[in-house]
Specification:
With about 280 residues, this protein is of the alpha/beta class. It contains 14 helices and seven strands. It has two domains: about 120 residues, no CATH class; about 150 residues, no CATH class. About 45% of the residues lie in helices and about 10% in strands. A five-stranded mixed beta sheet has the order 2-7-4-1-3. Strands 5-6 form a two-stranded antiparallel ribbon. A hairpin with a 6-residue loop joins strand 5 and strand 6. It is elongated, with a radius of gyration of 21 Å.
Length: about 280
C-alpha cells in the first residue's frame, strides 16, 4: 500500500472484499505522492479510497500536482474548485461545467457551501459576445431544423458525440454557440424567434428537458440516461430527414444546477441557461 501510493503504482487486486473495503483505513496522507494523485482513478482504489485522497487534497494534507488533470475526472473537478482556471471560451465553460456537475454528488458533501458558491459563480459568468439564435437560424433557412429542448452546455460533449454517431449519413457536426434571451424557457424562445420574424418548420425532441426535470439523479447518471433515450428518439427522426440536405440542431435554452445543489433548472436567465449549442451537419454529397 505505502509503496503504491508513494510511486503511483496500481494496487494489487484484493481477493478479500472486506479487506478491499478497509483499505482506506490503512492509508496515510504522507504516503500520497504527486504521481499517485495524478493517477488517482487508475490506482485500483474503490470510490471510498479515492474520496479519502480527494478529501486530503481539499484540506491541504496532500498537495495538488502541477500537471493539469484530464477533463471529466474527479481531480479535474477538484482542481477547478480549488484553483479555478481562467475561462476563455464557451468550449471551456462547457468542459468545466460538465466536469463539475459530474462530480457534484461526491465533492459537495466534502466541500460544503463553498462548492455551491463555485457552481453559482460558474453559472453566472459574464455572457460572452455571441450571435443570437435568431441570427444563426436566419443564416440557415435552407437547412432542416431540429430543436433539442434543454440541450445545455454541460451536455455538449456527450450529446455531440451521440449526434455524430446517429447522424452518420451527414458530415460530423460543426459546433457553434448562440445566445437566447433572459426568459430561458421554450415559450420565451418561440416568442423571441417570432419577434425576429423567424418562421421555419422544425422537428422537436423533448427527451433532455423531460429527464432534467423528472429525474433527481447524479449527473453522470443523467448523462447515461440522456444518451440512451435520446439515441432511441433520434433514430426515427433521421429517417424523416433528407440526407442530401444540411441539418441544424439547436436548443431553446440550457440549464443549470439549482442554488441549493438539489436539482436542475432553467428560467433564471443565468449564462449557463442562455448559451446554447448550435450544430451544423453538412450533407456528404
Amino acid at each position: 500500500m505505502q509503496q503504491c501510493l508513494i510511486h503511483g503504482l496500481v494496487l494489487p487486486e484484493f481477493s478479500d472484499r472486506q479487506f478491499a473495503v478497509k483499505v482506506k483505513q490503512f492509508m496515510r496522507p504522507e504516503w500520497v505522492s504527486a504521481t499517485a494523485v495524478a493517477q488517482l482513478e487508475h490506482l485500483g482504489l474503490d470510490q471510498a479510497g479515492q474520496d479519502t485522497i480527494l478529501s486530503w487534497l481539499l484540506t491541504g494534507k496532500v498537495a495538488l500536482p502541477d500537471t493539469v488533470p484530464e477533463p471529466n475526472t474527479a481531480l479535474f473537478a477538484l482542481r477547478e474548485f480549488l484553483q479555478p482556471s481562467r475561462v476563455l471560451s464557451v468550449e471551456d465553460i462547457a468542459c468545466v461545467s460538465e466536469s463539475l456537475y459530474r462530480y457534484h454528488h461526491r465533492l459537495y458533501p466534502m466541500a460544503g457551501q463553498p462548492w455551491l458558491d463555485c457552481l453559482g459563480a460558474l453559472a453566472q459568468l459574464p455572457l460572452p459576445n455571441l450571435p443570437s439564435l435568431a441570427e444563426l437560424l436566419k443564416q440557415n433557412l435552407g437547412a432542416q431544423w431540429l430543436l433539442l429542448d434543454c440541450f445545455g452546455l454541460p451536455l455538449v460533449g456527450p450529446v455531440k458525440s451521440l449526434i455524430d454517431e446517429i447522424f452518420g449519413a451527414w458530415q460530423p457536426a460543426q459546433l457553434n454557440f448562440a445566445q437566447v434571451g433572459m426568459g430561458t424557457s421554450t415559450d420565451s424562445c418561440y416568442r423571441g424567434l417570432l419577434d425576429e420574424n423567424v418562421r421555419h418548420s422544425f422537428q422537436k425532441c423533448d427527451v433532455i428537458d423531460r429527464i432534467i426535470h423528472s429525474k433527481k439523479l447524479a449527473f453522470e447518471d443523467i448523462v447515461s440516461l440522456v444518451t440512451t433515450e435520446l439515441g432511441i428518439a433520434l433514430k426515427p427522426i433521421t429517417k424523416r430527414l433528407e440526407s442530401n440536405q444540411k441539418v441544424v440542431i439547436f436548443a431553446d435554452h440550457g440549464f443549470r444546477l439549482s442554488v441549493n445543489g438539489r436539482h436542475y433548472q432553467h428560467g433564471t436567465g443565468s449564462t449557463l441557461e442562455r448559451i446554447i449549442p448550435f450544430l451544423v451537419l453538412a450533407a456528404r454529397h
